[in-house]
Amino acid sequence: MPQHIRIREVLLMEPPKPSLTIKGWVRSFRNDQFIAVNDGSCHENLQVVIDPQQYDPALLKRITTGAAIAAQGELVASIGRGQKLELKAQHIDILGDCPAETYPLQPKKHSLEFLREHAHLRMRTQTFGAVFRIRHSLAYAIHHFFHQKGFIYLHTPILTANDAEGAGELFQVTTLDLKQLPRTENGEIDYSQDFFGRKANLTVSGQLEGELGAMALGLIYTFGPTFRAENSNTTRHLAEFWMIEPEMAFYDLHDNMNLAEEFIKYIIQYVLDHHPTDLEWLANRLQEEESKKPQTERSGMNLLEKLHFVIAHPFERITYTEAFEILKNSPYNKKKKFQFPVERWGMDFQSEHERYLVEKHFQKPVIITDYPKEIKAFYMRQNDDGKTVRAMDILFPGIGEIVGGSQREERYDRLLHRMQELHISPNELYWYLDSRKFGGCPHSGFGLGFERMVQFVTGMTNIRDVIPFPRTPKNISF
Ligand code: 4AD
Ligand code: MG
Hints:
The protein starts with 6 loop residues before the first helix and ends in a 20-residue tail after the last helix. The strands form three sheets. An eight-stranded mixed beta sheet has the order 6-10-11-16-15-14-13-12, sandwiched between helices. It has a five-stranded mixed barrel with strand order 1-2-3-5-4. It has a three-stranded antiparallel beta sheet with strand order 7-9-8, with no helix packed on it. It contains 14 helices and 16 strands. Helix 4 (126-148) crosses helix 6 (253-274), helix 4 packs across helix 7 and helix 4 crosses helix 14. It has helices at residues 7-10, 57-61, 112-117, 126-148, 207-217, 253-274, 276-291, 303-312, 320-328, 331-334, 351-362, 412-421, 430-437, 450-458, and strands at 17-30, 34-38, 46-49, 68-77, 85-96, 152-153, 159-160, 172-173, 200-202, 219-227, 240-249, 316-319, 366-372, 388-396, 400-407, 443-449. The chain binds 4-amino-1,4-dioxobutan-2-aminium adenosine-5'-monophosphate and magnesium ion.
């Protein structure tokens, strides 16, 4: 065990404590006397107090913002404002210098844009510290939720040969020499010579393999990275994002929705219970950001109120057709305020429509079910009307779609037929079809976009600010 104590533990101690050592990074150094030290274990800094007379001036000069130090001394009650405790240091060691002339982070507020360009350093700021501590806790709470319900965490592959969603947004993976591609007789690329002997890609979803797990283990979930080469430069899309995909044997669409709602509320409550200081910081940050917006665009609730509100109220549940009617007859649509007018049943909703439903019309999370089959994936259970499928999307304020899920088509003939209609090869997916041939049963599942969830809980408006190193079009620097 290291000989030092982390600040989150120090803050729980009763002073005085004769001698302890902390290690961390200097946030600020005032009057040659007060060093604010943060070690990442919590939002709070520890105030380290020194008597400048006792130190070599050359050492004092090295106590700069960002420098790594160790401080050893007595923990006492602080008489100063702003903190209960402070460390009266008898000894300071500089573990790593941080020259102020070249260090990009100054002891002042930086814009999120600036910090995105310095993503290798931004985790050292208070905002990003809070975001990544909360991101961790959300991941922890997710595992806890499923574990206590008896779900098995299933590791589905990252390298695959399938396009689960059928949207063609694949990152291809190859070891072929791109300058000298092997060709077949008719001039096509000869993938039999590629690493896997066929075309391969990064996964867009672990669902298809997850379903196979559910057909044996009953209740499973995946939690892993997924990759989509969609060229959308928005505040809600990443090329590499993390997704949680539970899959449940013998669940119908209602069981699926109930589980998703309980799950989301549980993980939000977990963060509320464990991160009061980080949330307070982020709530203030958001309030400041919102105060710069025009009055009409501001959200009526602060971050904490929003989180409590979502937990306290049941999500609204409506069908696509009902949502379509609401949108079509809305004053917004009539006054032509939507960029994409709502006219034709069957259209896919744009984020402006989703946000209208959630933020203006219902003013709470909404679950939309029974979408037109043309705008949903091949594996969703077909309704008797011949037009819609047992899909469910959960829409959140400020975010839009946060969950996509469905009851699955468990009837072999129906599934095969739909695959043929969409030109999805039954030969390549024979293993998926087998799950319908051998003891297939009604089952359901959904996918929660992890970063969108972190966005909602932290109030960060841009998805690039809730993943340590975002991958977006033309951006893979760090
Ligand atoms: O709606 P999607 O595409 O659903 C699936 O992938 C299903 N296989 C899930 C399932 O039923 N097991 O994606 C699920 C969620 C979306 O609702 C969204 O929150 C998130 O994943 N998502 C993205 N998040 C960030 N960047 C992107 N490019 C995303 N695409 C989807
Ligand atoms: Mg979706």
